[in-house]
Every structure is written in C-alpha cells, then in structure tokens.
Design brief:
Structural class of chain B: mainly alpha
Order of helices and strands of chain B: EEHHHHHHHHHHHHHH
Strand content of chain A: 35-45%
Number of helices of chain B: 14
Distance between the termini of chain A: 39 Å
Radius of gyration of chain A: 24 Å
Largest sheet of chain B: 2 strands, antiparallel
Number of strands of chain A: 20
Strand order of the largest sheet of chain A: 6-7-8-3-9-10
Oligomer: heterodimer
Chain lengths: 362, 293
C-alpha cells in the first residue's frame, strides 16, 4: 500500500521555481533514498511531505488521506511522522528535556515521558548523557539526541534530510544502523535524502533521483546506478563513460553499437538509432595480455593514455577507438604495472553496457 | 625551575604568573583610530554629562528646597501616574504588538508588508504635536473611536486612558520594531523542528520563538516605556489633566518659574536614572533559552 502518493507537486519561492511536476509514490515499510545534487529540491520536497509547508499545487495523499483537502488534519498527520534535519539541532536544555519535547507537545503523562525518554536514549546509546546539557555534546552525539527525540514519538514515516552530511564516519554508521534496525523491526517507512550515493545504495530499497526540481527517475538502486534514464542522471550517479554511438545491428538478444570506430555489444534493446553508451568504470576489466578464457562479450586491445589516482581507486583511461575510463583498485593497478602508452586488453560484459537515446549536445 | 615573583603578582597553580588587573589595564593597546572615535563619542556624552552636572550643582546647593519639592504629593503622584500610564501602554503593546511583530518578521517581502511597516513607523517621523492631534481627533468625545467608547463609559479627554493611548501611539514603533528584529533572529528551522515534533503554530511560538526572543521583548518594552514617559506634546493634546511629569514641569515653569520646575526636573532625572539602571541590570538575569545553531 502506498503510504505517500504525490502527483504534480510544485513549489516556488517568489520567482524561483524549486519543484515542478514531482511524482512520487512510497510504499509502507520501505526505505526510499532521495538523491540529487545540491539545490535540486530534496529538502523542500521533504518539508512538503512532512506538512511543514504547503505546496503551490498538485495532489498529495498521506496514509490514504488527501491532505490538500483535509488541511484541518495536518497537525494530527504530522504527529504520525517525524523528521531529522541535516544540521544537528538541539535546544539549550538537558538531553532529557530535548528528547521529551515531542511527548510534551502530545500531552503525555510525566511517567510515560520518563519511561519512553529513557528507552529512546538507550536505543541510541546515550543513556549516560541523560542529565547533560545537549549543547555540550559533540555533533554526532547531538544528532543522535535529535534522532532519539524523533524516535520517541514512534513515527510511522521518518523523513531524514541528509542526516549524516556533517558527521564523521563512525557517527554516520551508528545513525545508519539505527535507521535500518527501525525499518526492519518496527516497519517504519523511511525517506532519506542524501547526496552520498553510497549511502543511498547501502540503505535504500528504492532510490529516487531528483534533478532540477523534479523526480527524474525512481527505481531499485541497480536500475538507478546501472541503467540511468538519461545523461544528467548518469552523470549524477557517477557514471564515468558516457559515449555517443550508433546502433549497427541487433541479433540474438544483443545490440551492437559503434562508438568511435569500436563496436561494443550490449544487452539493452536499441532505444533509438543514435544512442549514448553508458558504462560504469568499475565494470571494465583490464588485462596485461589477452585472457585465455573470458565470459565477457566485449574483448579488445587498447592503449593506456592516462592514469589518475583517486583513492581508493585508480582511474585508468584507455583508447580503443573511443576513450574508456576503467576504475581499478590501487593494488590491481600496481599488479598490472600500468603506465601511459602501455598495451592492455579490455573486457566488458554486454549487460554492463547500457544504452539510452541520444540527446542534444550536453 | 624557580621563577622570581614580584610582590603583588598572582601566581596560578601551574606556575603561570598573572598580573593584577590594574597592571593588565596598562598593557592594553589602543590604536589611534579607536582613540579618535572615543574622543568624538565623548563630545556627545559630554553634553549630557555637562547638562546633568549643571542642574545637579544648582539643585544640590539648596537641598532643603529640593527635598521639599521631591516630597510633595503633587510631584510624587505625577511621577507615579506617568510611570503607571507608560507601563499600561507597554502592556497593551506587548499584547497587541507582539503578534504584529511576529507576522512582520515571518512574512515574505511584499508591497503590502512594506505598507504596513510604513504605518508602524509613522509615529517616528511625525512631529509630536501632529501625533497628539491624530490621537485627539480619533479618541475625542466625537471621534471615530472616542464616541463609541465614551458611550460605554471610557472617556479619553483629560483622563488617564487618554494619556495611555497617546503614549501607546508614540511608543509603538519602538516596541514593534525591536520585537520584530528579535523574531527575525530566531532561525525558522528551529520552529520547524518543534513543528515536526508535533507542535502547532501557537505552541511553537510559545515554546520556541517567544523564549528565544525574550531579551528583545524586554529591551523593546524598556525603549517603549522610556519613550512613553518622556512624551509631552502628544499627551497634552488629549489629556492635559491629570498632569504627567512633563506637563507638571511645563505648568510649573510657566506659573512658578524656573526654580521649582528645575527641582522637579532634577527629581525626575534621579528617579528615571535609578529605574532605568535597575531595569538594565535585570537583563543580565533574564534567562536565555537559546540554541547553538
């Protein structure tokens, strides 16, 4: 069942259009990762979905209720949801008082507040700080206080607006583990916006990409990262090879594309005659000599033109008619003894080659 | 290693020598620019100090007369009336001006907002007599508001409510503008946090925005009160009687001469200084429920 249904949502601030034609559906109990570059409207969309501010138009349904028509129920609906912001925001009061805020707003009894605050702090591993001033804690601890402040209210939908953007890897892992456990054990629906692509892949069951104020593509992480719908999405999800090509044949379930004089085989049905070939760098394997046994449908010699270390990987550009960028581990690059001008063999599976219709320049 | 310590120097536990405050002050370096700024500022402060010294020297030379004037029921009653009317005006401003200040702080710039802001500022730019006349015309017995209110027994002409309403009019921009600045300094995302936690708009205002703006409310109230109790022209238009302190000084000046009016003025200066000093001191103890973002 869709717990959130948004259609044609739009929002402007003055003459600045932040969101347009946003369509999004979130199923109950799933984790949806909302990824997109800064300024693409992720935070604004989350605020609209959490009923913090109204949209300028479109249809929005939460828990099966048409919230545009039922404006008087916003406070009740908001109390069934929770939101964690990018910056750790705590009030200059004790950790206990910070976590108790939401329960006090709901008029809970002091015994109930006491019990639930202690449970919530236990869950985020901050019980020992219960009497401390929240502003004295570190950034990661403050964000955990903010998270427990949300969790104590038992939200059915949890919105996370880049919750780990300012945190160290340890605090990030803690927050991610708490969110994953909450989803697994409580069935909480989670919407997490992030520009950390790996976080989107790690946590989310489904991913929606926001580009220039709209949801450009939504699907499984594999679809988004390996089968982007257009060039903008491909660039955003970190595809290293976006090459113009032309379909030359299609037989036995394989499409052959010519790109820079090199024929590359793909399993994608031809979407148009003029196409863009999309290949992730990590799907390209490099070999010192022609492999004796190779399952990959694409196998050809190439010349190394440049090597660029980008820890923990190395970007190796090879020329084989067209330029291809392969992502290899530093250790693998060392084992291959790669150097500019060196002859190598490139292997690439046909299913790693994705084709999209060619767009105009850019 | 043993360190020689000069007499009067204070030593910390870690062996670091800390100079006493009178020697620390000597070490402070003041650059030429700051020095000139101080000298120019001193000219402004100097005028006030000279004026105060002038009246103090004259009045303290005849303490018997001064005490006589200070203890008179007419002067004491007038001071209480002035302070009380000013406080009433400020209370009304807090009640009605605070919501307006919040709306102005949170609304997006628009022509209508600019228009409302200009109306709020009108008492600042009008001559006080004009402000007094506006208040009189509105609240006199035949005025748009004065007529219906006098029907239910609230009279403004030569009455305490008239004094309050005149003070309210001239003091309102001081409170509303200060309060609006305070609300603008409260980050909207703090309010959003409260709302995501289940607070309604008024609960958010009451539990987050207002506590964070208390200092501005207090300062705005002090500014407005100071402006209100100092009003003269605006008040006499509608309420010459009962005498507020400015009217009493003017009346005394025109009937008894400079000696008595000067003594009343000196009493007012001493009382006002004491009251404002105390009010300012109290801001230090005004709790601040702020955030660190």
């Amino acid at each position: 069942m869709a717990i959130i249904e948004a259609h044609s949502i739009r929002k402007s601030y003055g003459s600045l259009e932040v969101l347009h034609d946003v369509d999004l559906s979130v199923q109950e109990g799933e984790i949806l990762g909302l990824i997109g570059p800064s300024g693409s409207g992720k935070s604004t969309l989350l605020r609209i979905l959490d009923l913090i501010e109204p949209s300028d138009g479109g249809a929005l349904s939460l828990f099966g209720i048409d919230v545009v028509a039922e404006r008087g129920r916003w406070l009740d609906l908001r109390r069934r949801m929770g939101m964690l912001f990018q910056r750790p925001i705590v009030f200059n009061a004790s950790v206990y008082d910070n976590v108790a805020m939401g329960l006090r707003y709901r008029g809970a009894s002091s015994d109930d507040i006491d019990r639930r605050v202690k449970e919530a702090l236990e869950a985020v591993g901050l019980s020992r700080y219960i009497g401390s001033r929240a502003t004295d804690l570190s950034g990661g601890e403050q964000q955990r206080v903010a998270l427990s402040r949300v969790l104590v209210t038992d939200p059915e939908i949890l919105f996370l607006d880049e919750p780990t953007a300012n945190l160290d890897p340890g605090s990030t892992a803690t927050i991610e583990a708490i969110v994953a456990r909450l989803n697994r054990e409580e069935g909480t629906t989670v919407l997490i916006s992030t520009h950390d692509l790996s976080q989107g892949q790690r946590l989310a069951h489904r991913v929606a990409v926001m580009i220039e104020g709209t949801v450009a593509q939504a699907g499984s992480p594999r679809e988004i990262f390996h089968e982007p719908r257009d060039q903008k999405i491909a660039r955003f999800v970190g595809v290293q090879n976006i090459i113009p090509g032309r379909v030359v044949s299609r037989k036995e379930g394989l499409t052959t594309v010519e790109a820079g004089g090199r024929q590359i085989v793909s399993t994608t049905p031809p979407p148009a005659e003029e196409v863009t070939v999309v290949i992730r760098g990590e799907d390209i394997s490099l070999h010192r000599r022609e492999p004796g046994y190779e399952e990959a449908e694409n196998l050809f010699p190439a010349t190394v033109t440049s090597i660029e270390p980008t820890a923990p990987f190395v970007n190796v550009t090879v020329h084989c008619g067209c330029d291809l960028v392969a992502l290899v581990t530093a250790r693998r690059a060392e084992a291959l003894g790669l150097a500019a001008g060196m002859q190598v063999w490139v292997s690439l599976q046909a299913k790693a080659v994705h084709l999209i219709p060619r767009e105009g320049p850019g | 290693m043993k360190t020689e310590t000069l007499p009067g120097d204070i030593r910390r536990g870690d062996g670091e020598t800390v100079l006493p405050w009178w020697r620390q002050r000597k070490r402070q370096h003041i650059d030429g620019c700051t020095l000139w700024f101080c000298i120019m500022g001193a000219a402004i402060v100097g005028i006030t100090v000279l004026a105060l010294a002038n009246i103090a020297m004259t009045e303290l030379a005849d303490p018997v007369h001064l005490l006589e004037v200070a203890a008179s029921s007419e002067v004491l009653g007038s001071i209480l009336l002035t302070f009380g009317a000013g406080a009433s005006a400020v209370l009304l401003l807090i009640l009605f001006g605070t919501p307006l200040a919040y709306v102005l702080a949170r609304s997006r710039p628009s022509r209508f907002k600019g228009f409302v802001e200009s109306i709020v500022d009108i008492p600042l730019i009008l001559p006080h007599t004009v402000a007094g006349l506006l208040v009189y015309l509105l609240f006199m017995r035949r005025g748009w508001l004065g007529a219906p209110l006098s029907d239910i027994g609230i009279a403004f002409e030569d009455a305490f409510p008239g004094t309050v309403v005149a003070m309210l009019f001239v003091a309102s921009p001081f409170f509303i503008n200060t309060m609006r600045e305070g609300f603008e300094k409260v980050p909207v995302h703090l309010e959003n946090v409260a709302r995501t936690l289940g607070a309604g708009t008024f609960t958010t205002f009451r539990t987050v925005t207002l506590p964070l703006s208390l200092r501005h409310m207090y300062n705005g109230a002090i500014f407005a009160w100071g402006r209100a109790i100092g009003e003269f022209a605006g008040v006499i238009m509608i309420a010459y009687y009962p005498f507020i302190i400015s009217t009493l000084i003017y009346y005394s000046f025109t009937t008894d001469g400079i000696r008595t009016s000067r003594s009343i003025a000196f009493v007012v200066i001493v009382v006002s200084l004491a009251v404002f000093y105390l009010l300012r001191r109290m801001t230090r103890h005004l709790g601040r429920y702020d955030d660190r973002v």
